[in-house]
Structure formats: C-alpha cells, structure tokens
Automatic annotation (TrEMBL):
Species of origin: Rhodanobacter terrae
SMART domains to which the protein is assigned, alphabetical: AAA (SM00382)
Top-level taxon of origin: Bacteria
Domain ABC transporter: 16-251
InterPro entries the record matches: AAA+_ATPase (IPR003593), ABC_transporter-like_ATP-bd (IPR003439), ABC_transporter-like_CS (IPR017871), ABC_transpr_LolD-like (IPR015854), MacB-like_ATP-bd (IPR017911), P-loop_NTPase (IPR027417)
Protein name, entry field: ABC transporter ATP-binding protein
Claim: Nucleotide-binding is one of the keywords in the record: yes
Keywords: ATP-binding, Nucleotide-binding, Transport
Gene3D superfamilies attached to this UniProt entry: P-loop containing nucleotide triphosphate hydrolases
An example molecular function term from Gene Ontology annotations: ATP binding
Lineage: Bacteria, Pseudomonadati, Pseudomonadota, Gammaproteobacteria, Lysobacterales
Amino acid sequence: MTHPAAATVPLHTPALRAENIRKAFVSGQQHTQVLDGLTLDIDAGELTLISGPSGCGKSTLLAILSGLQKVDSGRVQALGSELGQLDLRALERFRLQHTGFVFQGFNLFPALSAFEQVELPLNHMGLSREEARRRAQQSLEEVGLAHRTRLRPSELSGGEKQRVAIARALAKEPELLFADEPTSALDAANGQMIIDILHRIAHTHGTTVLCVSHDPRLVVHADRVLAMEDGRILSDRRTRAPLVDNKETPS
Ligand SMILES: Nc1ncnc2c1ncn2[C@@H]1O[C@H](COP(=O)(O)OP(=O)(O)OP(=O)(O)O)[C@@H](O)[C@H]1O
C-alpha cells in the first residue's frame, strides 16, 4: 500500500533539505562546533543512512532535520516547510502529523502492552478509536508482532521491543521516519531484521527514512549512504538507482 500523504510531496522534491547549517554547543568554557556549514538534500521514499564515528554530529543532524533542535544559522526545510519559521506549537503539530521516531533505547512505556504503545499517539493525533485500533493492529502485523500485541516491554525481547517502536512510528503514517541508532542495542539477527523493516517501509509506503548509525552492517541495506566526519559529509554514495531520475532533461 502506498501512503496517500506521500503523494503530497512530488518525488523530485527533496523531503528534507539543510542549507548551510551551523550548530555549536557551549558548556562552560567549552565551545563545540558540531556542524559547520552543512548542506544536504534527502530524497523522498528512500532509506538514507548517515554513518560516521562517535561524536561526529550524526544525532545532532538528525535532531535538527526532525525539528527537535534549532540551528544557529542556515535553513532547514522538511516537506517544503521552513522549520525555522514555525513557532513551537506549529513545530509540535508538524512533528505529530508528519514524523515518526525510532530510538536506540526503544522508549516504550513499561506499563503498556504493545498494542497500547502503538495506539496511544494515534489518540493524540485525534483519530477515532476504531481507526486508531485498526492502524495499531495493522502496524503490529506489518512488523511481525500480531501474536505479541498483549505483551508488555518486560515480556518482549530487544528486537521485539524495537519492532513495537517501529510499529508505533509507522501507525502514524508519517512521511518522515527518523531512526537514531536503531540497531545498536541488538544482536546481528535482530539488527538485520530492523533494518529490513525500515527499508521495506521506505519502499512500500513511500516514507522517507533517515537513519543514523555507526553500525557497518547497515550500509549494504540503505539506498544511500552518507559518511560523516567532524560535522561534514565526506562521501555520498548510492547503493542503487534513485526512484526517479532527478536530472533535468537536456534541451
Ligand atoms: N546538548 C549538548 N550539549 C553539549 N554538547 C553536545 C550536546 N549534544 C551533543 N553535543 C556534542 O556534540 C558533538 C556531536 O554529538 P552527536 O551526538 O551529534 O554525535 P554522534 O555522531 O551522534 O555520536 P554517537 O555516534 O556517539 O551518538 C559531541 O562532541 C557531543 O559531545
């Protein structure tokens, strides 16, 4: 099934765009320039992986592109919206309606069943109870957890917990899905399953999936790999042809 909202952003338009962004952190006497004039486009409907050594700025870049953090200077566009122009409320609404997140530590509520974890944000989005239940069931089925919906996090394996977290993000039917080190707490087999699911989501739902990781196992599964070091993109490599040819037809 193709996500209907994916059609709102033409495929030749980057889903995410960073233009000359700068970001520094100051703590006490220490000034850390994390991103220093970084420019980047992320295409819709692909799994893009940002890899690089610890501390190079991957998570900061992800937080900025998803509207969780502000830049010091430069522009960030997501689905054509200029994130810097949105006030806090509009930004929250944008994130609720258009983005999903998957984190290294799963971020699940200990007291809720898998089904309730997925259903909860859908209620906040204002969906009817029936629609929320339908989406929750469908998303859990899609990540292979139809038989585990009643279990709480303490009763699930690490890989299953991460699949619940993915189902929770997926059920929102977001155009943008952000994953920060989604496999680093998992063994090889579970890590492989998670990246396969993320890849499938990008291709079957038209979702733009941006994943940061220093896990080298993920590289071969991404459509595009950006290698980052010291806050800069060192290389930009496609592992397969883009979904559409973005080049202008020569006249
Ligand atoms: N809130 C903050 N306050 C101060 N410094 C920060 C903050 N967030 C990040 N940094 C610093 O910015 C730099 C980049 O951090 P970031 O988390 O983006 O790197 P990363 O590539 O994702 O690393 P890792 O792979 O270890 O998660 C690091 O030096 C980090 O210490």
